């Protein structure tokens, strides 16, 4: 009976089922699932949460300063009497967008630079020397410098962190390209008359996508942590608009009396970083098994 | 081969960038393949077979390769000096190539369909539907059963032999005039090997293409080729028609290779191999490059590089002492 059904299954469906192989493996991966759930909850909260509370995150109220967590202020209130829950929800929008932007920008530029260096070997020494020079600075120091130069605003954090992470991404992409370029299917594509652009788009990029995606999830996590660190150092997104980083930074002077001001955004940062890391681990196991053997 | 050959490689010297400057990987290589003919190229590992074959389509990476001399004559064109755009039309369209390792010749992230349709769409401008129909026909042609289902598979679902069939389907998709097969069966089981070679022979007849078959195995050459080129240490040491080569090998190296083929007529397999190994391309040897391994070397062999001499009837060998003695050892 089953055999008949299988034989009758249209080829299209079989092909599609194979295409979902990766998804099925991911669905069976425990830490990937935990990470995905964590990240999904945080993202959902950031998107729809602010609509639900209906409170202005910047609205001050002298009378309700430093209220500990209660029914009215589930996460407590800060020195201006603002609702921490609302601020954490809004802050998630900014912090997660910073993480996403840094990951996307590092991904695009890192891939472009890594493919250029790995594929066009003549350019490689120059490009990679420049990347090495950038990588010689610790990411946070580089970000502090750029952030200081561009002024304290969300976009300069994005630029600063992207500059810091592009070389690392480029390095990883280049390493995969160096492996891929020795594969006979590239030679075979050249034999059938394909040009460089076609080869890059159709053969090189898709084959280094796995390691790239893995790297980007980790960059997403780093960027959220770095945003908090930079805010702490006073070069994060400026108040009063909340980000997880600047809520923590503003709360630091009162950390003993009003622990809740720092605790909840701190938890959000940790959960986001943890979630992205778990997600990244899962993706790495499924998309890039080579890395697993090495570590 | 009285009339003009389909393709001829003339005095080809290819250099790679080494630690101490440019090193000749192959030097002064000459051979030609006629229309519809099968030319075998044999030689030990490292003798320059692949380097020569890849040069025909100028496939070496330009960053560390130099075509120091020579020409690849194809019709009235020289493929080495052809502009990139015209060269790309020849690749795949008129001259196709398959490689040794069918495991890495197919892109793991694309389906078989994607990969067979690529040259069809590129060179023949077929629509997606037409290319897909043609691709299924091609899979049938290379005897892949259940082609219309198999075509949507990813390469990892296929065995090595099947992948090599797919590679062949891709190679012959545009009915090339010449197929270069660089050790197409080395990575496969013996039974699969003969099936693949049989398939190549049938396709050659069907399409009327020429084949350059690169192999370690003189037995394969004996069975499939009409002419043969023997390479050693980056040089052609002997070239002849297949019967002439087996009947009267002129070069001691060729002789050694023939002796190394297990002789099925005899009860005892006398498998002799040539003692020693091929010299590294960067090693400088003044005289004959085979002289360190040659039992017949005389003083003159060590003094200057021997040239390829015609011993009559298109049988050339790079061994002056032998030719002077009439080819008999
Ligand atoms: N890209 C390259 N860069 C430097 N040297 C190379 C390169 N490709 C080949 N060589 C050298 O050129 C010589 C000839 O190699 P080639 O690959 O043509 O041998 P082959 O006859 O095809 O051997 P095999 O039977 O193992 O395939 C070898 O010494 C090899 O080391
Ligand atoms: S030229 Fe001399 S060394 Fe070289 S193969 Fe002939 S006899 Fe041997
Ligand atoms: Mg080879």
From TrEMBL, chain A:
Membrane topology of this protein: Multi-pass membrane protein
UniProt KW keywords: Cell membrane, Membrane, Peptide transport, Protein transport, Transmembrane, Transmembrane helix, Transport
Annotated localization: Cell membrane
Claim: Ribonucleoprotein is one of the keywords in the record: no
Presence of the UniProt keyword Transmembrane in the record: yes
SUPFAM superfamilies for the chain: MetI-like
GO (cellular component) term, any one: plasma membrane
TM stretches of this protein: 34-55, 94-120, 140-166, 212-235, 258-280
Listed PROSITE patterns: ABC_TM1 (PS50928)
CDD domains: TM_PBP2
Span of domain ABC transmembrane type-1: 96-280
Single Gene Ontology BP annotation: peptide transport
Coiled-coil annotated spans: none
Main location: membrane
PANTHER family reported for this sequence: D,D-DIPEPTIDE TRANSPORT SYSTEM PERMEASE PROTEIN DDPC-RELATED, OLIGOPEPTIDE TRANSPORT SYSTEM PERMEASE PROTEIN APPC
The family this protein is said to belong to: Belongs to the binding-protein-dependent transport system permease family.
Protein name: Peptide ABC transporter permease
Organism: Bradyrhizobium betae
Automatic annotation (TrEMBL), chain B:
One CC-aspect GO term: plasma membrane
Protein's UniProt keywords contain Nucleotide-binding: yes
Subcellular location: Cell inner membrane
Keyword Cell membrane found: yes
Stored InterPro entries: AAA+_ATPase, ABC_Ni/Peptide_Import, ABC_transporter-like_ATP-bd, ABC_transporter-like_CS, Oligopep_ABC_C, P-loop_NTPase
UniProt keyword terms in alphabetical order: ATP-binding, Cell membrane, Membrane, Nucleotide-binding, Transport
GO molecular function: ATP binding; ATP hydrolysis activity
SMART domains named among the record's database cross-references: AAA
Family annotation (Pfam families): ABC_tran, oligo_HPY
Membrane-topology annotation of the record: Peripheral membrane protein
Any GO BP annotation: peptide transport
ABC transporter domain mapped to chain residues: 7-258
Family membership: Belongs to the ABC transporter superfamily.
Name of the protein in question: Peptide ABC transporter ATP-binding protein
């Amino acid at each position: 009976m089953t055999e008949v059904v299988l034989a009758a299954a249209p080829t299209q469906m079989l092909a599609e089922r194979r295409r979902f192989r990766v998804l099925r493996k991911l669905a069976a991966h425990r830490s990937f699932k935990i990470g995905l759930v964590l990240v999904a909850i945080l993202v959902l909260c950031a998107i729809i949460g602010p609509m639900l509370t209906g409170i202005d995150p910047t609205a001050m109220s002298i009378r309700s300063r430093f209220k500990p967590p209660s029914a009215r202020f589930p996460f407590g209130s800060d020195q201006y009497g603002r609702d921490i829950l609302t601020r954490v929800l809004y802050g998630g929008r900014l912090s997660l967008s910073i993480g996403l932007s840094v990951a996307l920008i590092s991904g695009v530029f890192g891939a472009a630079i890594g493919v250029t260096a790995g594929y066009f070997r003549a350019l490689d020494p120059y490009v990679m020397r420049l990347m090495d020079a950038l990588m010689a600075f610790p990411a946070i120091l580089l970000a502090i410098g750029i952030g200081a130069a561009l002024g304290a605003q969300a976009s300069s954090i994005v630029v600063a962190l992207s500059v810091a992470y592009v070389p690392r991404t480029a390095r990883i992409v280049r390493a995969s390209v160096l492996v891929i370029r020795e594969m006979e299917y590239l030679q075979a594509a050249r034999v059938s008359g394909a040009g460089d652009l076609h080869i890059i788009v159709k053969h090189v990029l898709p084959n280094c996508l796995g390691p790239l995606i893995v790297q980007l999830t980790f960059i997403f996590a780093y960027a959220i942590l770095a945003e908090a660190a930079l805010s702490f150092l006073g070069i994060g997104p400026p108040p009063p608009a909340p980000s997880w980083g600047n809520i923590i930074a503003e709360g630091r002077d009162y950390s003993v009396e009003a622990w809740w001001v720092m605790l909840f955004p701190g938890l959000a940062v940790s959960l986001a970083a943890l979630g992205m890391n778990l997600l990244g681990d899962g993706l790495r196991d499924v998309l890039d098994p080579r890395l697993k053997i090495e570590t | 081969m009285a009339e003009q050959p389909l393709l001829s490689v003339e005095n080809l010297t290819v250099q790679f960038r080494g630690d101490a400057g440019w090193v000749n990987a192959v030097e002064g290589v000459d051979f030609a393949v006629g229309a519809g003919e099968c030319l075998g190229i044999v030689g030990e590992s490292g003798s320059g077979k692949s380097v020569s074959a890849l040069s025909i389509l100028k496939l070496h990476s330009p960053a560390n390769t130099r075509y120091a001399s020579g020409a690849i004559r194809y019709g009235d064109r020289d493929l080495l000096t052809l502009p990139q755009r015209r060269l790309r039309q020849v690749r795949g369209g008129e001259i196709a190539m398959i490689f040794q390792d069918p495991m890495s010749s197919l892109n793991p992230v694309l389906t078989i369909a994607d990969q067979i349709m690529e040259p069809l769409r590129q060179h023949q401008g077929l629509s997606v539907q037409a290319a897909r129909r043609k691709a299924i026909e091609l899979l049938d042609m290379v005897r892949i059963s259940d082609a219309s289902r198999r075509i949507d598979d990813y390469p990892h679902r296929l065995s090595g032999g099947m992948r090599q069939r797919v590679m062949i389907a891709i190679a012959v998709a545009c009915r090339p005039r010449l197929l270069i097969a660089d050790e197409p069966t080395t990575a496969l089981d013996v039974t699969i090997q003969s099936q693949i070679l049989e398939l190549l022979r049938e396709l050659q007849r069907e399409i009327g293409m020429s084949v350059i078959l690169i192999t370690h195995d003189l037995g394969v050459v004996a069975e499939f080729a009409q002419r043969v080129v023997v390479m050693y240490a980056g040089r052609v040491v002997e070239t002849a028609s297949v019967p002439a080569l087996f009947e009267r090998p002129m070069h001691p190296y060729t002789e050694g290779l023939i002796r190394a083929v297990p002789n099925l007529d005899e009860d005892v397999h006398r498998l002799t191999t040539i003692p020693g190994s091929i010299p590294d391309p960067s090693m400088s040897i003044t005289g004959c490059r085979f002289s360190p391994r040659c039992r017949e070397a005389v003083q003159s062999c060590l003094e200057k590089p021997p040239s390829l001499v015609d011993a009559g009837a298109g049988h050339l060998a790079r061994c002056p002492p032998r030719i002077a003695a009439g080819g008999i050892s």
